[in-house]
């Protein structure tokens, strides 16, 4: 008798299975070793080089075709990644993201066809007020992915936590703080989980993106 898993043409990936189980149960997953250490170090260096060279711009509210800058809502600087033009570290990052998307499509019929990612730098004391990652003219975002690229001496007392607003079994809202520890990856349902970024007392680095339908 051949099991169902063997009939499907894929190998079970324990890390992806963990992520799927978390998201189905809680709407989010926190993974501390999703990407290899050298990917994190390489991305951090690439981000800092580009930030130094002045390639970043002030992040806006809305999507790329409908932008307004409101620093009282968000104060970060971003640089969109160009998937047609990747260095080896970025290729490693997107390789894993593509592998995850294919796995989700195969096992959960998520229909992920597109993605968009940007680097983000929050200077000390900047924040992003509570929001949902969807826009009036773009409801295609399914999963939000945030991977922290902070320096290795980052401590929880430096702040900069991501706060996810969740509901308990009685429907009562409670905040869940996720500290931006280097290499930590948070994945959550873009259309369901409101969240905010609290100010840190030092520069906060990340790569953030969305897995999208259509
Ligand atoms: O950096 C984070 O922790 C979350 C960023 C975020 O919410 C966003 O860019 O939409
Ligand atoms: Fe967000």
From TrEMBL:
SMART domains documented for this protein: P4Hc
Keyword entries, A-Z: Dioxygenase, Iron, Metal-binding, Oxidoreductase, Vitamin C
Gene3D superfamilies: q2cbj1_9rhob like domain (2.60.120.620)
InterPro entries, alphabetized: HIF_prolyl_hydroxylases (IPR051559), Oxoglu/Fe-dep_dioxygenase_dom (IPR005123), Pro_4_hyd_alph (IPR006620), Pro_4_hyd_alph_FE2OG_OXY (IPR044862)
Cofactor field: L-ascorbate
Domain Fe2OG dioxygenase: 108-213
Keyword Repressor: no
PROSITE patterns linked: FE2OG_OXY (PS51471)
Pfam family, one: 2OG-FeII_Oxy_3
PANTHER family for this protein: EGL NINE HOMOLOG-RELATED, HIF PROLYL HYDROXYLASE, ISOFORM C
Name of the featured protein: 2OG-Fe(II) oxygenase
Organism: Maribacter litopenaei
């Amino acid at each position: 008798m051949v099991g169902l898993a063997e009939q499907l043409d894929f190998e079970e990936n324990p890390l992806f299975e963990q992520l799927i189980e978390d998201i189905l149960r809680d709407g989010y997953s926190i993974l501390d070793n999703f990407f290899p250490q050298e990917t994190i170090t390489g991305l951090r260096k690439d981000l800092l080089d580009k930030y130094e060279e002045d390639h970043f711009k002030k992040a806006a509210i809305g999507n790329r075709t409908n932008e307004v800058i409101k620093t009282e809502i968000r104060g970060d600087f971003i640089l969109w990644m160009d998937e047609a033009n990747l260095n080896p570290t970025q290729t490693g990052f997107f390789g894993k993201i593509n592998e995850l998307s294919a796995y989700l499509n195969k096992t959960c019929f998520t229909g992920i066809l597109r993605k968009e990612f940007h680097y983000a730098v929050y200077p000390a004391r900047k924040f992003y007020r509570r929001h949902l990652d969807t826009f009036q003219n773009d409801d295609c975002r399914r999963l939000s992915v945030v991977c922290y690229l902070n320096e290795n001496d980052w401590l929880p007392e430096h702040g900069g936590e991501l706060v996810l607003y969740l509901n308990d079994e009685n429907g009562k809202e409670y905040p869940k703080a996720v500290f931006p520890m280097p290499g930590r990856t948070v994945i959550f349902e873009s259309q369901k989980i409101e969240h905010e970024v609290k100010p840190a007392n030092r520069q906060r680095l990340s790569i953030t993106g969305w897995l999208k339908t259509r």
